[in-house]
Structure formats: structure tokens, C-alpha cells
Amino acid sequence: MVFNTAAERAAVESVLPALQLDLAASPGQIDVPRVRRVSRELGMVLGAQGLMRLTVLLREAVFGLGELEPLLSPGVSDINVNPDGSVWLDSGEGLRRTDIRLSGGAARDLAVRLATSAGRRLDDALPYVDAHLPARSKLPAGARLHATLPPLSEGATISLRLPSGAAFTVRDLERAGTLSPLAAEVCVAVVASGVSFLISGGTGSGKTTLLTALLGLVPARERLVLIEDARELRPDHPHTVSLQARHANTEGSGEIGLEVLVRQALRMRPDRIVVGECRGREVRELLQALNTGHDGGAATVHANSCGDVPARLEALGALSSLDRAALAAQAAAALRLVLHMRRDSSGQRYLAEVAVMRRDASGHLTVSSALTPAGAGPAWGELRGLLGEHGDSLCAPLAVSGRTEK
To answer: Which of 37, 104, 271, 387 has the lowest CB atom count within 10 Å?
Structure first.
């Protein structure tokens, strides 16, 4: 929300409490007649232009992001409010500080209001929230909110994660430098061959973007069932079913987790089962599903490198009582490839490595590098073999690009 004058700010601060009470007593739209009535009850007389401007500002104050509203624009992936009230923005080049600064009260009010709009509780008794916000005008579907209040933090914190509004194709990612020409061909071959794969990487590294692009390559005759905590995957594909988890209500009941949705997906005649992000017990259900004839499945997972993926899967498997040996046996058979995404200091996201997942001589889960920007790895031949006829045309690279891994 941007105030043109101090008088506008004063008018909003004067009318807003009364308007909120009016909405509580009579829910509905914030329109000119309502604002006119509430402002007159407070003794304010406004002209037609001033009344319309006040209506817009109050609508943003109640339903929008308040003073953060101007930051919503294409390309923005993250908006963060720190305990000191400073506001930071990431539009693809890393976080940078904005000129906006929220007072402690304004940041807390905004955090509580956003949590309420998502149907979640945020107060002194429960001073943290992780929720997905409902879509509206400038706010895209799938926007994620995380907020904390004191004493968990010195002041109110807000972290907003905004999904990309555009679905990139593999060729778009190649033009953007996310994929080298050979890496793009490998990705096309992976989808065409029906090999199940895992996309790993850190927060904001482009895992969901790459997965969305790859799902757009799946033949139109195949049915995709996408399972997510909140809908972020929107592939350009004509036969897609999206299932979303449901969080517990304020009484702590009604939760439906991803592991339940994976089991439901098996009864929906899927050709490919996709989990947007594995981070809990659903990994067991996914591995079992992929080991029962459902080829071409996929998922993403947080990991610092390809080499860290086995340990990450073992940790997730432990949450569902899978021991190390059982996890290794199922994962090596279900997820054959790992595609690792990375984001460099300049903000550029790129495919940093393709690795083959297998069990070593001791039966433990391990990965072997097949492709990096520096060239082919020891598992390059194994990768081509996994891709079958789709790997026959892939030539061993001496170097994919000028980028080298550190």
C-alpha cells in the first residue's frame, strides 16, 4: 500500500478499525457504499474522488499485503520482513533491501491478518504459522506464508514465497542458461524413457520450475496425478489431476497428509505419480508406488548436493520406520536418477549435476555422477543405458559449458 499523502495514511488509520468491526458484524465486500457509511459515522465527509481512493486503500489494508502490495510484480519470488521492520525482496538476483520499513505493530497486524485469511491461527498462544494464501488479484495461487511473533523472534517476521506465474518449457530453460544444450537433451530423454527421477536442490534453486517443465514433455495420452502440500506444479499438459494436502484446523483435527494422497492416487489410474516435495512420511508411500509398476514418477527433495541425497532419503525414511537397508532397496529400484539444481551467487539457477542412484557393494544407497557442467562423469555410460534408445543419440561431453563446479 502506497500513501500519496500523510492525510491518506491518517484517514486509513482512522477508518480501518471501524471498518473491521463493520465487516465482522456484516461480512461482505469493501465497496464505496460501505466505506461512505462507516466514514460518515466517524464524522468524515469525503468527495467522490477521495472516497474512491480511500476505498481502494482500505481494501488493500484488509485483504491485501498492505504496504507490501507494491512489491507484487512478475519475477518476484520472495518477500521477507525482518524483526527490525526492514523489508527484503528477491526478484531473481538474490535478496536486496527495499525502501519500505514496517513498524512493529504494522508487521504483527499484517502477519496475523494474512494467517487469518489462510484460515490459520497466529497469536501469543501459537506464535508461528506456515500456510498457503488464497489467490486474489495480484497474489498468485500457491503463495506461501511463514510468520513468527515474539518471543520466538525479537519482532514479527514474515516470509512470503511467491510461485512463478509462467510455466517454462525445457527450451525456455535452455535459453535462460538453466540447462546447457546437452543437459536439455538429457532431460528430454529422461521423460521419454519413462525413468523415474528425483530433483534435488536448495530453497529457491529452481526444483519446481524444472519439474514443471519436464512434466510438460509427458505425452498427452498419459495421465499425471500431482500430489502437493499446496498447488505449485502447473504443467502445460492436458491430462492432469492435482491433489492438495489439508492442514489441521485450529482445533488440531482434519489433517490429510501427502502420504494419504499418494495412496489415493494409486486408485486413480495414474500413468505417472508426482510428489511436489518429499519431506516426510510420504516418501515411503511414493517408493512403494513407484515399485509397483508406475514408471516415470518424479519428486523433489531438499539437499545440498547429489551426494547428500541418500542421507536425506534415509532421514525421511526413518520418519516412516524404514530402516537404512529397506530404504536403500526401495529407493534404488524406484528412483534411478537424481537431477541436482543449484543457484549461484548471481542468482542464476542451473542444473549442476545428473547422477545415477544405486546400491553399493555393502547394500547402502549411493549416487554416481553422470553429467556436470565440467563434462561427463563415471556413470555417463550407465545413464545412457538407463535411457535405452533415447540415450543412444547422446554423445559423451568433453565440457558442457564454461561453468565449473566447486
So the answer is: 37
